[in-house]
Amino acid sequence: MEIPKVKVIGKSHVKPKKDIGRKECQLVTFDLPYLAFYYNQKLMLYKGNDNFEGSVEKLKEGLSVVLVDFYQLAGKLGKDEEGVFRVEYDDEMEGVEVVEALADEISIDDLLVEEGTSSLKGLIPYNGVLNLEGSHRPLLAIQVTKLKDGTAIGCAFNHAILDGTSTWHFMSSWAEICSGSDTISVPPFLERTKARNARVKLDLSLPSDPRASSNGDAKDTKASSNGDTKDTKASSNGDGNTEPQLRERVFKFSEAAVDKIKSTVNANNPPSDGSKPFTTFQSLSAHIWRHVTQARELKPEDYTVYTVFADCRKRVDPPMPDSYFGNLIQAVFTVTAAGLLLAHPVQFGASTIQKAIEAHDAKAIENRNSEWEKAPKIFQYKDAGVNCVAVGSSPRFKVYDVDFGFGKPVVVRSGGNNRFDGMVYLYQGKSGGRSIDVEISLEAGAMEKLEKDQEFLLNV
What we know:
This is BAHD acyltransferase DCR. One of its GO terms (molecular function) is acyltransferase activity. Belongs to the plant acyltransferase family. Residues 201-245 are annotated as: Disordered. The chain folds into two domains: 7-194, Chloramphenicol Acetyltransferase (2-Layer Sandwich), CATH 3.30.559.10; 247-451, Chloramphenicol Acetyltransferase, CATH 3.30.559.10. 25% of the residues lie in helices and 23% in strands. It has helices at residues 52-66, 108-111, 164-178, 212-215, 255-267, 280-296, 338-343, 346-359, 362-374, 444-451, 454-457; strands spanning 7-14, 23-26, 40-47, 76-79, 85-89, 96-103, 140-147, 150-157, 222-223, 230-231, 246-253, 303-311, 329-337, 388-392, 411-414, 423-428, 436-443. The strands form four sheets. It has a six-stranded mixed β-sheet with strand order 1-6-7-8-3-15, covered by helices on one side. The longest helix is centred in the middle third of the chain and has 17 residues, at 280-296. The chain starts with 6 loop residues before the first strand and ends with a helix.
């Protein structure tokens, strides 16, 4: 569906409610790899808009309060005198960008389609904007749009300064204030250097063509720690070919379907051999990996990579609190031949994923960080591997509890940024319980096959 016109009716900036003074916070090894990703986009749709202007003012007032704790989101990216990236904040900065818009020809039902993100594009700011641009743009941009029968809240977060856990911590805290609380229940833990304190100098610059940020071409992006400057490759398949035509779909797995997937994967996994039962995440991941690989019709000898962006808060030594604000994730990779994955029962894929996740302990994290600090490489969002299935977000995030005082969201979606062939976002299902919504981006031909795969769909 082509979205009717969205008309911007106002733009303002929101700063923390009280003066904080000058603050600087060094970005650490967990943050820096995301500088050449795009802003992370989220969209929430709410029923009703009886008092749109009043709701916008309430959101802005709540935002000013919550930014006192989350002031880094009101800052900018900068560098210190040695070229180390950091978040900089002072009371003179403009703060968070808030756009008000009108789309009164669009209803909530128009946007509940499970296909694509093009219909959502006009409702979320900063499409195609690189995180590096946070040096001259706000680190958080919000668009509040009045729909025919509801309100859309679209957010774009600079991914170089926070991950999914921190994103939803902020969102729930903002909603808490808007719902009448004077203070937030869980303040953010802002001391990034407690997780890692290596100072990595990066020589990074935006692509020379200012239009490059809107078409995903960031081939000029460079990283250097010791004068050895390397070009970042923009192609997801390493050969420079044009990207395939992608389609995006949301597959809604009911609680019964999720339980069936998990019980099937665990059915032939006897604990007597010392193996652990597979978790819901591992079971669903193996199910998705297997059926996407099948839909791609890979040759038996073709490699396929599974990637998960693992939360390292409890994996690092010493462990960090859940409230740690920043990026504390790392990509965990595992690879196998497509023929092996498909010739074996689904337990094979689940076991491969389980071993990779369990092996990513404090020692593995330390080794990964040390290697990266010696020779930094700034990846693009699509460098997740060949024939990849890459899983981001988490059904553990309580996205449907984000109530600003006018009800819970009808739907939560990701925007069009940071999508490539094989990117998967997992969300808590709207129906609650153990239901999970699975957003998948795939090459059009493979998506068509996946949509017809009854074993994948499990319409229980």
